[in-house]
């Protein structure tokens, strides 16, 4: 673990920014051996954080990974690193976009620190003329150092939009404005005459924080589709401590799943495969949301399946019982 960063490392008149690089497209370039685009090094600071002459920067690079290789254990290591920092006014994490929203949400659940944390990345690599990394990193740095960002939990800055970690999601595989998520951004940062113009559309909200020291539970995600008869359910239920199902619509499943969920003693959380919207246990037919809830399934509120998985992973790793897990989801304690 890198050493703590203390005020003695820079002058007291300057703002202090921690820059944590983890890999991803923003740190990638074509492999000289022809293997494709791969993360190779941290982005150049001079190229990416122009306009912050009064800022003292301390950099960390705990790992250099494409984001499909990032695991919850890496997220826990990031949480520990950020929690160890002292004397900084803000922190920026550069991250691959494929799992950026999951790392952001994990930190939303577990990170307690007095300074803002902003995650960003890029959709294009350093070898492309339209590389979006410098602008995104500048926006993230300015957001992390802005006084109105305090108390909001980890944020995502991308394409000038600022997102809440609970609702942000990747909505396009290749466009530079790849991030969205209903009900949309909670703020915007634009550049006018070399100055940052930042505006939030809402005030900070209460966060519920959890403090796992390890992630020992196993949670799997299953995906519902027309005609699904539960293939893979029994195998996943046997090897996992809990399940999340990306269900249909407001949280509905084919009738064949209802007796399977009734029979399990493990938490089964129902999310939706739909792009946005809450789980609403309305329908009373076999497999409808109301019958699933009566069978013991737990509605995921507005969390998508992969974020519901992280919340369930944290709760089960903390040893919470089934009833406590249900209460967290139903009361929106995240």
UniProtKB/TrEMBL annotation:
GO terms for cellular component: membrane. GO terms for molecular function: asparaginase activity. Keywords: Hydrolase. The active site is at residues 25, 97. SUPFAM superfamilies: Glutaminase/Asparaginase (SSF53774). It holds the Pfam family Asparaginase_C. Residues 1-66 form the REJ domain. Substrate binds at residues 67, 97-98. It comes from the Bacteria. CDD domains: L-asparaginase_II. GO terms for biological process: asparagine metabolic process. InterPro entries: AsnASE_II, Asp/glu_Ase-like_sf, Asparaginase/glutaminase-like, Asparaginase/glutaminase_AS1, Asparaginase/glutaminase_AS2, Asparaginase_C, L-asparaginase_C, L-asparaginase_N. Belongs to the asparaginase 1 family. This is L-asparaginase. It comes from Deinococcus ruber.
């Amino acid at each position: 673990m890198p050493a703590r960063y203390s005020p003695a490392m820079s002058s007291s008149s300057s703002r202090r920014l921690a820059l944590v690089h983890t890999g991803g497209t923003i740190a990638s370039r074509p492999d000289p051996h022809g293997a494709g685009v791969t993360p190779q090094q941290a982005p150049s600071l001079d190229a990416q954080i122009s306009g912050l002459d009064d800022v003292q920067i301390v950099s960390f690079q705990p790992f250099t990974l494409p984001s499909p290789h990032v695991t919850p254990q890496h997220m826990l290591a990031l949480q520990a690193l950020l929690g160890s920092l002292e004397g900084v006014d803000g922190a920026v994490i550069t991250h691959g976009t494929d799992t950026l929203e999951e790392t952001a949400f994990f930190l939303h659940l577990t990170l307690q620190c007095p300074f803002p944390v902003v995650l960003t990345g890029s959709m294009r690599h350093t070898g492309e003329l339209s590389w979006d990394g410098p602008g995104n990193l500048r926006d993230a740095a300015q957001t992390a150092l802005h006084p109105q960002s305090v108390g909001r939990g980890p944020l995502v800055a991308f394409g000038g939009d600022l997102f809440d970690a609970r609702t942000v999601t990747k909505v396009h595989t290749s466009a530079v404005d790849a991030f969205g998520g209903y009900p949309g951004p909670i703020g915007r940062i634009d550049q006018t005459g070399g100055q940052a113009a930042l505006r939030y559309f809402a005030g900070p909200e209460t966060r519920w924080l959890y403090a796992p020291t390890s992630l020992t539970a196993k949670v799997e995600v299953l995906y519902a589709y027309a005609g699904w008869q539960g293939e893979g359910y029994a195998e996943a239920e046997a090897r996992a401590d809990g399940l999340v199902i990306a269900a249909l619509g407001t949280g509905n499943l084919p009738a064949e799943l209802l007796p399977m969920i009734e029979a399990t003693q493990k938490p089964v959380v129902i999310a939706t495969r739909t792009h946005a919207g809450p789980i609403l246990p309305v329908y009373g037919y076999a497999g409808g949301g109301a019958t699933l809830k009566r069978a013991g399934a737990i509605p995921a509120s507005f969390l998508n399946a992969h974020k519901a998985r992280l919340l369930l992973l944290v709760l089960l790793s903390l040893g919470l019982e089934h009833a406590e897990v249900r209460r967290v989801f139903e009361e929106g304690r995240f």
